[in-house]
Amino acid sequence: MRYVALSLLASVAVASPALANEARVEARGGVVWDSNNSDATAGVALGYDWDLGGNTFVGLETSADKILTDNTRVTFGFGGRVGVKVSPDAKLYAVSTYQTKNYKYGEDSVTLGAGYQHSFGDQFYGKVEYRHHFVENVSDYDAALVGLGVRF
Questions:
Q1: Of 98, 94, 81, 93, which Cα lies nearest the Cα of 135?
Q2: SS3 of 123, please?
Q3: Which residues have CB under 8 Å from 32's CB, separation 6+?
Q4: Contacts of 11 (CB under 8 A, 6+ apart)
Q5: Longest CA–CA separation in the chain, Å
Q6: Phi, psi of 71 (to 5 degrees)
């Protein structure tokens, strides 16, 4: 599954977009769950999206997230997203990231998900996102996130 995120990153790296679209920074929070537990999570992300022409875009993202419970640590994510602008203020996208392990003895994961981002004026945006975490040798888990950010 790690190859999914690596493939997405490679495709973003070789894309030759005509126009730079936006840099962004956001704060986000939500819930993670598996078949046994659910916990709150919070984090930050930094990204950059490029227009591909028409209504499509690609982007890179790095993040730091923490499950808000004992015996967890900050996970760092590296990945990208690809999507369409459904209106001047709205984006739908697929996202995939490689995540470092979130427990001391846990495993790294690869995420695959989808999201919706909506602009509020020229600089601010909000988003909702769902991600499934594929984890080797441990149970997979899911995340639902809500974020608020600033575009540059």
A1: 98
A2: coil
A3: 38, 39, 41, 67, 133, 141, 142, 143
A4: 58, 82
A5: 47
A6: 65, 30
- The total number of residues shown for the chain amounts to 152
Task: Please check whether residue 95 is in contact with residue 12, taking contact to mean a CB–CB distance below 8 angstroms.
Answer: no
CA dihedral 111, 113, 118, 119 (to 10 degrees): 30
Two tokens, residue 147:
């974020």
* Mean pLDDT within 22-38: 96
**8: helix, strand or coil:** helix
Let me know: does 93 contact 112? Beta carbons within 8 Å. no
What confidence tens digit (pLDDT) does each residue in 88-102 have?
Answer: 999 999 999 999 998
The identity of residue 63, as a single letter, is: S
Higher pLDDT, 124 or 3: 124
Q: Enter the DSSP assignment of 89.
A: T
Domain boundaries, the chain: 2-151
**Beta strand segments in 34-108, E:** 38-53, 56-67, 75-87, 90-99
Q: Which CATH number fits domain 2-151: 3.40.30.10, 2.40.160.20, 1.20.1290.10, 3.30.450.40?
A: 2.40.160.20
